[in-house]
Write the structure tokens for this entry.
Amino acid sequence: MIYVKDLSKSFGNNQVISHIDTHIEPGEKVVIVGPSGSGKSTFLRCLNLLEEPSSGTITFDGEEVTSPNTDINKVRQHMGMVFQHFNLFANLTVKKNIMLAPVQLKLMTKEQAEEEAMRLLKLVNLEDKADVYPIQLSGGQKQRIAIVRSLAMNPKVMLFDEPTSALDPEMVGEVLELMKQLARDGMTMVVVTHEMGFAREVGTRVVFMDEGVIKEENTPQEFFEHPKDPRLQDFLSKIL
Amino acid sequence: MEKLQADIYQTFILKDNYLYFIKGLRITLIVTALALILGVVLGLLVAIVRSAHDQQPMNKRGLVLRVLNGICKVYLTVIRGTPMMVQLLIMWFVIWNTRATDGNLICCAVISFGINSGAYVAEIVRSGIMSIDKGQMEAGRSLGLNYVKTMRFIIIPQAFKNVLPALGNELITLLKETSIVTVIGLKDLTKGAMIVQANTYQAFVPFFGIAIMYLALVMLLTWLLGKMERRLRQSDIR
């Protein structure tokens, strides 16, 4: 579904990602872990071109995302993204947050979008929050709404950039639960996270990134029980 | 006390002098309102060009954007670097240079003040745009909305709310600054008072009179802006 070929990204002289090759298949749940500064977030943000890669190509659904002729806005409609800091639109109510993109991109009428928004809010048990502004919500509620806001676009793949890192510990569970539900429904997911439990339970493939390269990737079981790369062994010994 | 009463009578009632004030007030308000509209439109455009340029990574700035940004920068430097009165004099006596009808004078004043105000509004709005968290733009773009739509529905509304106090300040300044249109001979509120003073040899009542009128207008505007601010603050109430 997403082919990444020889992807590199540098900020000035600082090379953050170097020559990454990987392929994400439909239905896969790829979990990317690694120490901070290892380039995992940058890699994820390259996939929908929030960061412009310095070199290399990304192909999504047969279309070369990195080609200058590609309409990136069209591509992004099919790639949902969830951010560490939720990034709900502060000037819009919860319902309008969800409705904005589908209506503005003429994928739905206002009525359809409203119906869809209410259906999604019911899914996350937040229908009573439809008309409040994001500032009135808890972190966990914000992130669940950010997730369904992406879902309203009916994406083919969802990218998660440390979705639980900014949450109070007691709110992590509700967000992870929603992500697990998504996974069960067959969504293709790429998740950057520090939640090793989630990686083990939900991931179909776990990727260890360090210093801008993929040091090791494997099934969760092999990954956590028989890590081969010394840096990964060190990393796991510190966090598990 | 009786002297003051006589002065007030002489200033406002005698020979229908109050007409100078009413007509003057009308012109002051027209010039302020139209210059405000022009200033906000100009300012918004310049602010968007400037912040689009500054938020774009170096290698992605197109030639058009760079040229537009250059023009905007020159505009800001020149307008903010020269006195309003000089700009008005140049606009009227050098560039306009036609018959001094009221219509001509008003047009010239509106354009001069609009261009001047636009420079200040641009910097105010730009500071507002720059103050919005980067994540808001990223979230909009990640959903497939283009730059313009994200600006229009997400960034500008939030930026506008944040800079409303500063914009209100600019509006108040503009209202008071229009009094310098007297130098090109437009009969605004201040000019009205000057004419009355010249006719009646009274200075106290006419000038204090217009001072009170300006003050009342500013207080009215402050009140209106306060109301508007409270309405826009809806999304900030926890």
Remarks:
- The two ends of chain B are 55 Å apart (CA to CA).
- The first helix of chain B runs from residue 2 to 13.
- The domain at 2-237 of chain B is CATH 1.10.3720.10 (MetI-like fold).
- The mean pLDDT of chain B is 89.
